[in-house]
Design goal:
The protein contains one helix and eleven strands. By secondary structure, it is mainly beta. Strands 2, 4, 5, 6, 9, 10 and 11 form a seven-stranded mixed β-sheet that branches. A hairpin with a 4-residue loop joins strand 7 and strand 8. It is globular, with a radius of gyration of 13 Å. The N and C termini lie far apart (40 Å).
């Protein structure tokens, strides 16, 4: 069993930066991903990272602005978000998948565990 707790969300202005954290407990050797769900929209993939090599993959909408990273010693995954836009407003969720997942697998295959999310609001 894995527990995931996100933090770092908040209300910021357009162009600002935020860093989200996802603290994992339990069995923590997993590929990890960040997803988001905006009001009235489907949940979408944001970024993924592999367990062992730390390879990353991003959705086109955030490529070049967001960076996913992990600190396996701290069992924590981060999402650095720069140049935020109002359309980035959403609840951001951290998720854990099998440790054999590639960074691409995280974007479309089922994830095993989910956090409860943290709200990011970007004002114009």
């Amino acid at each position: 069993q894995v527990q995931l707790v996100e933090s770092g969300g908040g209300l910021v202005q357009t162009g600002s930066s935020l860093r989200l954290s996802c603290a994992a407990s339990g069995r923590t050797a997993h590929a990890m991903g960040w997803f988001r769900k905006a009001p009235g929209k489907e949940r979408e993939f944001v970024a993924g990272i592999t367990w062992a090599s730390g390879r990353t993959y991003y959705a086109d909408l955030v490529k070049g602005r967001f960076t996913i990273s992990r600190d396996n010693a701290k069992n924590t995954v981060y999402l650095q978000m720069n140049s935020l836009k109002p359309e980035d407003t959403a609840v951001y969720y951290c998720a854990a998948g099998p440790n054999y997942y590639s960074e691409y697998d995280v974007s479309y295959r089922a994830m095993d565990y989910w956090g409860k999310g943290t709200l990011v609001t970007v004002s114009s």
